[in-house]
């Protein structure tokens, strides 16, 4: 069978691999039941859904004809490294300096990966994302995530 879209084919393979990996990893946790789901319930369901989505994309890549075969271009290393570095810095800084500093820093650093950097959009996104992260994770779910740096908390 001929691959008719290289981009869709590789994307579908990636979705299937990640979905199967998460579903397999979730089998090591207690599944529970729908009324009382265990820690493995949602990862398993999401992994299966992702694998099914990947299979659909794979099917499309093998059946739907495209003009040029949609070849895969060169890997954009700068955005890839920038976003990965921003996430690693966020993970390192969050417990040390709190959400109020680490979330805006994550937004600012990862926005440098794009071609359309605008300070106004970055600042608005950082403020909104920080507020909703605090609202959902700290207030809503009650997670123990530092909001302020340790030096400001008595």
Explain what this protein looks like in three dimensions.
- Helix content is 65%, strand content 0%.
- It is mainly α.
- It has 2 domains: 58 residues; 75 residues, no CATH class.
The chain-level structural class is: mainly alpha
Helical residue percent? 55-70%
Q: How many domains make up the coordinates?
A: 2
The total of helices stands at 5
**Apparent shape:** flat
Helix and strand sequence: HHHHH
Rounded mean pLDDT is 90
Could you give the distance between the termini?
Answer: 66 Å
- Radius of gyration, in angstroms, nearest whole number: 20 Å
Strand count, sense and closure of the main sheet?
Answer: none
Number of strands: 0
Give unreliable regions as ranges.
none
The fraction of residues assigned to DSSP E strands is under 5%
Please give a handful of descriptors for the protein shown:
flat; 154 residues; mainly alpha; 0% strand
SSE order and pairing:
Layout: H1 6-26, H2 41-63, H3 77-97, H4 99-111, H5 119-140
What is the compact description of this entry?
With 154 residues, the protein is mainly alpha-helical. 65% of the residues lie in helices and 0% in strands. It has 2 domains: 6-63; 77-151, no CATH class.
């Amino acid at each position: 069978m001929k691959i008719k879209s290289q981009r869709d084919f590789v994307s579908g393979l990636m979705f299937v691999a990640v979905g199967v990996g998460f579903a397999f990893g979730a089998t090591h946790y207690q599944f529970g039941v729908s009324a009382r789901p265990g820690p493995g319930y949602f990862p398993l369901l999401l992994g299966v859904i992702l694998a099914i989505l990947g299979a659909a994309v794979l099917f499309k890549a093998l059946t739907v004809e495209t003009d040029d075969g949609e070849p895969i271009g060169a890997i954009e290393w700068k955005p890839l490294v920038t976003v990965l570095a921003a996430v690693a810095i966020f993970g390192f800084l969050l417990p040390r300096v709190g959400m109020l500093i680490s979330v805006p820093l994550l937004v600012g650093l990862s926005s440098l990966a794009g071609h359309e950097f605008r300070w106004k959009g970055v600042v608005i996104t950082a403020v909104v994302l920080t507020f909703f992260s605090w609202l959902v994770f700290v207030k809503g779910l009650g997670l123990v995530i530092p909001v302020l740096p340790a030096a400001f908390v008595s």
